[in-house]
Amino acid sequence: MQRQPSPGPGSSSKNKVWDKLKSDSRAKGSPLYSELSAIRLERSWKKLEGLQRNAKIGIPEIARQYELAKIEWSLHDIFVIATPSSLNRAVFPSDEVKRKHAVVIESLRRLAGPPEEDVADWFTVEARLLYAKLLFSIGDSEEFMLVLKCLNLEEEHRAEAEWPIHARRLHAECMAMSAWSCVQRTLTLLENAAQQRNSQEVLDALQKAISTSLLYLEDLECSFGGGAAPGSKLITIGAAVSDWLEEILCTAPLLYLALGLTDVAVQTFRKIMEASPSRFSAGLRLRAAGQLSLTLLRAFPQSYTEDATELHTSCDIGLDWMSQADARRQECRREELVRAVCIAEQLVREGAVESRFPKDKAGHDIWYGSQASAVYDVAVLALANRDQIELASLLEHSLRYAFDDEHMWIQFGLSLMCCGRFEHAQVVLRQCLAQHAHSKEAALLVCKLCTVHIPNAAEAVRYASALVAKHPKMAAGHLALGLAFVLQSRQISTDEARQQAINKSLESLHTAQELDSGNPVITLYLSLQLANQRRIADSMEVLLELLQKDPTHMLALWLAILLQTSLKNYTDAETLCSRALYEYPHDEQFLLLRVKIDADARGPAAALVTAKSYISEQQLHRLPLEAQSRLWLFLAELFLQNEQGKDAGECLEKVGDTTTAEYLYLRGRVKLLEKRFKDAGALLEAVLAQDPQHVPSMLALVYIYMHSGNLDMAEHYTSQALAVEPCNHFAWARRGAVLQRKLNHEHTAECFINAIHLESTQPAMPFNDIPIIF
Questions:
Q1: CB-based contact 101:77 (threshold 8 Å)
Q2: Rg of the chain over all Cα atoms, to the nearest angstrom
Q3: Which of 363, 383, 415, 474 is 20 to 30 Å from 532 by CA-CA measure?
Q4: Alpha-carbon gap, residue 637 to 702, rounded angstroms
Q5: 102-112 and 122-137 helices cross at what angle (nearest 10)?
Q6: Are 49 and 135 contained in the same domain?
């Protein structure tokens, strides 16, 4: 017959019993007591044999604790079998194991006494908690719940002073078991979600288990964290936090998420994070911070893009983050996410082993593999595209502990590139290559920096050549080398060297396409380089393959339009441009192309009409300032072509940046239209001082020197223009005009023939306007 608990668990008689429960101060201050406590918490049972003689004499309370420790040691096999993961599969000790420990089990039942009797001391409390843990471990859930209910260890007793640490630990484990039992009984393998959400019993049990476990960790730090009595031994972290406590603290929030209770899960993560900082809670707080970050990322994606609340964070992610980390007071999820990531990173640093010269290499590898790498990966997810400067600062800290980690170096380099700190990124990625010479990712990123962001053809060729030498079957390496040679061909001024660079670029791009024929980037730049060689038919054939696979590819559409204009197929170019504007209605490049097609096909007057229909002042104000300036400059160019100098000047007044080469050049063109040659020449010389390869300024100066009769200087500037752009038909025509004035008829005819030939394949805008992006 089932035993009934004594009436009224909250009765006055029960409270009086609890009021008398105090741990013995003589025992607690004893070095032997502290050593016995450490052995029990560590579960290093072999050490008990050395204490046997001392425990039998001296303080009686220690002898009784020793007796409980021996019983717990004897039942260790049962407790090892009854782990959270095994009980989740209903794995309990066999009957043979129970028979083997029958004597010990009976002894513990005797020490615990009937559950309905009042407890007289802490020894009885510990004995009953240990007995309850045993009952749960052998599958007797009903008797387990009865013992716990009769003990009545509820809220009013959690604040009791001087709980023995063993009682706290056993209480926390029993509450975790109780919650686990409640979850299994009520949720039945996570079925019937509607019932689960309404199961207050489950929620209460989990919350009690979490609170009790955190209180135990707090008491544990008070008892052992700052040292112990003379002669005592400090306990280890892993043993003190048992499987049951770790499981309930780590799993409970995930159960809430599985039930759809995201807010409750977030609150639980916060509660664990806000536990008293100690070496015993650090690992759990770290996991909670990481899981909270992922939960916020997945459950509240829209809240991170809110503009209502400005994110105020400091790049110095130090201990200040810990003192400001009350997540309940955050104004938005976005800020809470960043703080959770930074708290996790701070906890990682507290337990870190610096890796550049590690004294404990094995310890560092275990720590980094199990904790740090996951935290920094979550940081990248949380902060990427939101606060790149903060991310870069955080990843810079990580290198103290991940100095040999290629992945972390690359993440750091990428974050710097996203911030626009290209020089710093280059230094970081070069260091990564110095440590990991075969790193494909780092080599590719360095090539990209040298080709796109910090143009240096020689460095780009050097790094790309090394990459291809180490990985000859890597298509991306040959692409990087081909683009490096493209950049080199644009920076070389001699015809022979330029042609060599062009041939090498085509060779590398062809090789890349053979290795990866479906790569759209390779196809695009192979087509572009063929177009630059005025091999229009070959370029179009290659490009059509890309457009058939991806008809909306922006750069491919751009190149296709230019190819059609080079063939003077203006109707097809207009059709393609209209399609591009449908796909990308706010892209100013396609707006410019559409107007430029009209200028080439029908003249500048018709182009101005088209510009007014496509580009209204209201539309202009919606664009970024840089795009607005570019459009005003373009309109000024159209007015100048139509010899409307006043209108061109008004457009230039609306340009934001008045120091650019293009702005100064157009101001010089206005002066030329006004016949103010001296002022125009000064402006054009200023352009060349800023950009020595600005061909339009060179050709404008040719006109000025021809007007003044200085044919030698005019010829000089035509030579410079052709050295930069050998396919510029305007430069060949001006050179022919200069040589004609100098009566050099033989070379004059050659120049005009070249001009006519190149003009027949001249696109509406230069092919090189298409940026290198890979």
A1: yes
A2: 39
A3: 474
A4: 19
A5: 140
A6: yes
Q: What is the pLDDT of residues 342-373, one digit of tens each?
A: 667 666 666 554 444 455 555 445 445 555 66
How many domains does one find in the chain? 3
Helix axes 422-435, 440-448, angle to 10 degrees: 150
* Count of beta carbons in the 10 Å neighbourhood of residue 451: 27
> Does residue 487 lie in a domain region?
no
Name the helix (H) or strand (E) containing 259: none
Q: Contact at 8 Å (CB) between 164 and 122? A: yes
Amino acid identity of 478? H
599 within a domain of the structure (yes/no): yes
CB atoms under 10 Å from CB of 41, counted, come to 20
At residue 512, φ and ψ (nearest 5 deg) are: -60, -40
Picking from 436, 463, 433, the residue whose alpha carbon sits closest to that of residue 448 is 463
DSSP 44: -
User: Mean per-residue pLDDT for 586-597?
Assistant: 88
CA distance 651 to 639: 9
Residues 622 and 685 in one domain: no
Of the three residues 139, 158, 174, the one that is the final residue of a domain is 139
**Residue 348 domain-assigned?**
no
Q: What is the domain range of residue 750?
A: 677-774
684, 772: one domain: yes
**CATH number, residue 755:** 1.25.40.10
Give the integer Cα–Cα distance in Å for 606 and 618. Answer: 21
Judge if 57 and 135 occupy the same domain: yes
Integer distance in angstroms from the first to the last C-alpha of the chain? 78
Q: Burial letters for 13-33: b for 16+ Cβ neighbours within 10 Å, e otherwise?
A: ebeeeeeebebbeebbebebb
Angle, helices 165-187 vs 243-258, to 10°: value is 30
**Cα–Cα–Cα angle for 577, 578, 581, nearest 5°?**
85
Residue with tokens 């029990």: 40
Q: Which residue from 69, 52, 62 is spatially nearest to 23, judged by alpha carbons?
A: 62
Distance CA 390, CA 288 (A): 21
Listed range (4-13, 284-293, 468-477, 727-736) with the worst mean pLDDT: 4-13
CB under 8 Å to 704, separation ≥6 — which residues?
672, 677, 680, 681, 684
Q: What span, in angstroms and rounded, lies between the C-alpha atoms of 347 and 341?
A: 10
Same domain, 712 and 606: no
- Banded pLDDT at 34 (limits 50, 70, 90): confident
Burial class (CB in 10 A: 0-12, 13-18, 19+), 63: middle
| Average pLDDT over the chain, rounded to an integer | 77
Which has the closest alpha carbon to 702: 686, 725, 720, 729?
Answer: 720
- Distance between CA atoms of residues 532 and 83, nearest Å: 70
User: Could you say which DSSP state residue 121 is in?
Assistant: S
Token digits of residue 743: 């009566």
Rounded Cα gap, residues 198 and 194, in angstroms? 7
Distance CA 425, CA 769 (A): 26
The answer to whether the beta carbons of residues 732 and 758 sit under 8 Å apart is yes
d(CA 755, CA 498): 20
- pTM score over 0.70: no
Report the SS3 class of residue 683: helix
Q: How many residues does the chain have?
A: 774
CA neighbor of 169 nearest in space, from 42, 32, 275: 42
744 with 691, same domain: the answer is yes
Question: How many alpha carbons lie under 13 Å from residue 456 in its C-beta half-sphere?
Answer: 14
Q: Is the dihedral of CA 691, 695, 698, 700 positive or negative?
A: negative
Contacts of 531 (CB under 8 A, 6+ apart): 539, 559, 562, 563, 566, 763, 767
- Tell me, yes or no, whether 79 and 44 share the same domain: yes
- Shared domain for 751 and 723, answered yes or no, is yes
Question: End of a domain among 86, 121, 139?
Answer: 139
- Which residues neighbour 587 within 8 Å (Cβ) at sequence distance 6 or greater? 554, 580, 581
Q: Considering the domain boundaries, does residue 712 fall inside one?
A: yes
Q: Are 230 and 31 in contact (CB under 8 A)?
A: yes
